[in-house]
Every structure is written in C-alpha cells, then in structure tokens.
Write a structure and sequence with these properties.
Elements: E1 2-9, H1 13-22, E2 29-36, E3 43-45, E4 48-50, E5 54-64, H2 69-80, E6 88-94
Helix pairs in contact: 1-2
C-alpha cells in the first residue's frame, strides 16, 4: 500500500476531486494549508502589493493499493496541472498496514 500526499492549488481542487472519482479513488482526506514557496517576488492586484511567499494550498492525503498508485499519481498530475509556478508537489510513501475499524479488515481489503 502507498500513501500519496499532494499539495495543490485550491483553485484546482474540483478538477482533482473529479479525476480521482473517475478512477474510483472515492476516499481521501484534505486540508487547507499555508506554505512557503520558492517565488520571492510580490504581486500587485488593483494597485495593492501583496506577498506571495505565504501560499494558500490544499493538502490531499490518499492511501491506495500498490496497483492503484500509477493511475492515482497520473490523475493528480493531469488534473492539478496549470503549467505555472506553484502547481504543487506529490509525495509517495510506503504504508505498512491499514485497518478498517468497523469490520476489522486489514491490508488492501480495508481500503475498498
């Protein structure tokens, strides 16, 4: 099993959620987060300058079976992409075990 963590633009969350549902990844958690990025210059909007060093993003956490890893990462890459600086990051790590509390199932069976 793999844990996929993605930090994406909040504006792309709807597209990402739809892409995940299309590949049958129907359960994931998400949070609104603030991070610090590489872009150091500020932007001007309606005459007001504001800093872009603190970036509002959405953090998504998904646990999938090994067989779903590639299609899940591909769905994230395609749906979160804008081509501009700040599209986000995806991290993949190993999960040793998972349990469904209600049924006491474990392993990949607990994910479906």
């Amino acid at each position: 099993m793999k844990k996929i963590e993605a930090v994406i633009r909040k504006s792309r969350f709807g597209e990402v959620k739809e892409a995940l549902h299309q590949i049958e990844v129907n359960f994931f958690s998400y949070w609104d987060v603030t991070g610090v990025g590489n872009e150091k210059q500020g932007h001007v909007y309606r005459g007001v300058s504001y800093s872009t060093s603190d970036i509002q993003r959405r953090y998504i956490s998904i646990v999938v079976s090994d067989s779903f890893l590639d299609r899940t990462v591909e769905a994230l890459l395609e749906s979160a992409y804008t081509g501009a600086v700040g599209d986000g990051k995806i991290f993949v790590s190993e999960i040793e075990e998972a349990y469904r509390i209600r049924t006491k199932e474990k392993g990949a069976d607990s994910l479906v």
